[in-house]
Write a structure and sequence with these properties.
The protein is an alpha+beta fold. It is built from nine helices and 19 strands. Keywords: Hydrolase, Membrane, Metal-binding, Protein phosphatase.
Amino acid sequence: MDFPKKKIDTYQLSPSSLTPRSYFPMKASSSTERILNEVQQMKKLQRSDPLVSKNQNSLKYLKLAPIQPFNDSQEISSQINSKSRRNYKLQGIHPINITKNCVSRCAYISQKGSENKIPHDNNQDSILFQTKLNSQAYQFLFGVFDGHGSYGHLVSNFIKKTINLSIPRCLPEAQENDMINFLCQSIDQAINDLNTSNIDINISGSTLCLIMISGPQIVCASIGDSRCIIGKFIETWDYEILSIEHKPTVYDEVQRIEQAGGLVSVAPNIRNKTQGMLRVWSDDSDIPGLAMTRSIGDKLMKNIGVIDKCDITKHKITNEDKFAILATDGVWDVLSNEDAVRIVAKYWKEGKSELACKGLADAATKKWEECGVRVDDISLVVVFLHAKDY
């Protein structure tokens, strides 16, 4: 289904879980007269925007009231459908609305895949979800890592933890070049540490897709086929792919593989060569095909052109940018970019990033179940954006 070409209404971001009680705590010992006086004083305050109604869900209304400091790292965790066979891990935050901050809400979800409705032993995906880098409320670091092979879950988790340990090296007032240097150095350090670790990475590895947000700047680093897109609204909903994917369908990637002696083809046991997923193969029949042309780990594939060099892209947040979606191929293999934007846009209008995560994960799970008996691990991060005037 194509996107509509006509304009539709835009909506204000308004975290629904925030209540006036969080902002106007009244001590039990306060007298009735004092409380009434406080209420009368609040009513006399002038609002900067007369179009903003006194709705408890209105972020602007809450900001304009004489509030006590709001903890921008406040987190909301919830277990979704505890009786479900899917193992959800869901979390959202509500950063303080300061001048430099362009993130209004964000959340993530990660769920284990299954085979014939029997959950896999391990969720091979890992998620990095960090706010307030170096105590800066406008700096964020998000990442998804998709492991593969017998020890893929160990690889993805190792990379996530190692990069997380690098955060103190990030400059508090990081500019674009600082962000690029930080991501590249952190990834290189993680790869070097993995190569000298005790994890067997001969035929196990992981993808990587990271975004760092500092004020209005986004820098993305990617290795493999995990993806980040920006949901945009101009005259209609649209998207921009922020990350660079490394797959056997990309000409330059295939050229490098073939020049190094590798082979790009579908699985040998598939008779109809027009069907099936392209993979990278080695002459060694004991080495399974790889669905990406770059990865972290996969030591035995490095001599046939599979590299672990990241690609960097950058983006400045504008008023058109409404949210970012960062996800593993458990989402992208079954949902198009348009599908993902349409699903998240519904919850963006309601200001519910945590429900956007669940809605997207549920849609991907349903698609997998319609296609066969296997459901891949599904992990994603949703970030609601709010451009400022700079």
